[in-house]
Every structure is written in C-alpha cells, then in structure tokens.
Amino acid sequence: MAASEHSHRDGPDLCACHPEAGDGAAPAASPSPSPGLSRRGFLRSGVAGTAAGGLAVGLAAGLGSGLAAPSPALAQTTLTADQALKELMAGNQRYLDGKMTSFDHDLKMLHDHTAEKQEPFAAVLSCADSRVPVELVFDQTIGHLFVCRVAGNIATPEIIASLEYGAAVLGVRVVMVLAHGRCGAVEAALYRKAVPGQISALYAPIMPAVFQEGTGIDKTAGVNARNQAKLIAESSPVIADLLKEKDRLKVVAAFYDVANGKVTLLE
Question: What's the rounded Cα separation, in Å, for the pair 15 and 73?
Fold first, then answer.
C-alpha cells in the first residue's frame, strides 16, 4: 500500500533534501466484534467509499457499532495500544543503536508465515519520501506494520479508509502519523511554489499547518502531522469508536529526523 515517488527533472522535488531551507527537527466503545468478519466482507460493507470529514459514513453505516475489533484470527491481540507504541519506539532505538533484529529472521519462514495472513500491530502514515524507510526505521519484519504513504503524510479519504481497515479488520493497536525533516511537500505548500500537473493538490491539506506555524519547514511539518492525526481520530466513526475502548487503539503524531534517524513523539 505504498505510493511511489519519482522526481521530475523540470519540477520541484517534493521530498528532496534542502539543508538551507530546513529549520531542524520539531520536538518531538463498541460491542464485541462479529467473529465471521472477513476482509472481503469488510470491503463490501462500504469501506472503499469512506472519506474524511463525514465521508466515513458509509463504513459507519455498514459496520458502525457492530464492529469494535477484528476477528481474533486476524488481530494481533497480544499487545495493548501502549505496548504497541512502546514497541515502535524501541524498534527505532535499535535502529539508532545499530542493533537491529529484523534481519535476523529467516526470510523463507517469514514468507511462509505471512503468505496467507498479516498480523500488523501498528499502522504508520508516512510521507512518500525515499529517505523514510518505515520498516527499517522501526526495525520491523514483514507483516508487522501496515504502512500508508503519500507525499506530505496527509489524511486523504483513501488513506483514512485504509487506516480504518488496518484498525478495524487487521487489529492494529496504534496509528502513527510520521512527519519528517526537510519535507519537500511541506516546503512547496509553505512557499506556495508554482508546480506542474496535479502536485498542488497536496497543498490544501497542509495549509492549515502553514497558517498555524508558517515559520519553517520542520516546525510546519510537525504541526501538519498533529493536524492529520487529529483528523484521523475525529473524522472516522470507526476509529473514534475504537479509541473509546480501553487499551484498544492510540492515534499519535511523530517526527523523523532524516539527519540522524531519530523518531520523536509529538504532543
């Protein structure tokens, strides 16, 4: 579910490193589930038409209070929301320390284990920037992270629908919106750059952060991550319901420093 990003020779690089422009990293319930829920059933219930700011009504009507959590066969139920977040941050610390464990696993066994199912404990909405390799940053193997990527890490209707699927069907315990330093999408919105094609479609979701902060790329990126996390938590009835359940789900914002690899949680 990752979106690829390719630079354009004649246009701006939306996620290119611009040291002169950066300003440093920002500081960091529903009833019981239906046991027979399947991925196909979930999609048929209207999730594909889900969207932000009230557009998630299709999913709410199809599942709503009837779905609080996924089938036990699909969920990674051994972690609480706090434990899932702690594991993400511990993985980033291993990455920083050069003590990664994800490469110690047997690749064939991983493929065999995940061929028929996935058991992610966390979902991450990150920018499409090639310098933000999410699984590496958090030292996680195949099947552990449900990753959505789009330039500017913005919560579009399709992204929210995907995160609803991750939370409601796959049973992720934490949703993290991950901003990063020297983000080209944020820079372009901040300085209202003239851009070719449909690139400017990224501006509108980022502009609230520009108006709130507007003093530098990294600080604006951090504000944008908080805004997108708030949008996800408040615009989706599915996620809002799961957030009401004790230890079931957390939605957080974080910032990735491309210069040193450190992830910092944002308040």
Answer: 38
**Which of 2, 19, 27 lies closest to 184, judged by CA?**
19
pTM, two decimal places: 0.74
210 residue type, one letter: V
Judge whether 148 is annotated as a binding position: no
Does the annotation list 17 as a binding residue?
Answer: no
Residue 204, domain CATH: 3.40.1050.10
DSSP state letter for 256: E
Number of domains in the chain: 1
Question: Does the annotation place 183 within a ligand binding site?
Answer: yes
Amino acid (one-letter) located at 26: A
**Is 180 assigned a ligand-binding role in the annotation?**
yes
Whether 34 maps to a domain, the answer reads: no
Q: Is residue 154 part of a domain?
A: yes
User: Looking at the predicted structure, is the pLDDT value of residue 255 above 70?
Assistant: yes
- Exposure class string for 96-118: b at 16+ Cβ within 10 A, else e: eeeeeebeeeeeeeeeebeeeeb
Q: What is the DSSP string of 197-217?
A: TTGGGGHHHHHHHHHHT-S-H
What residue numbers bound the domain in which 64 lies?
39-102+117-266
211 assigned to some structural domain: yes
pLDDT in tens, 207-245: 999 999 878 999 999 999 999 999 999 999 999 999 999
Query: Does residue 261 form part of some domain?
Result: yes
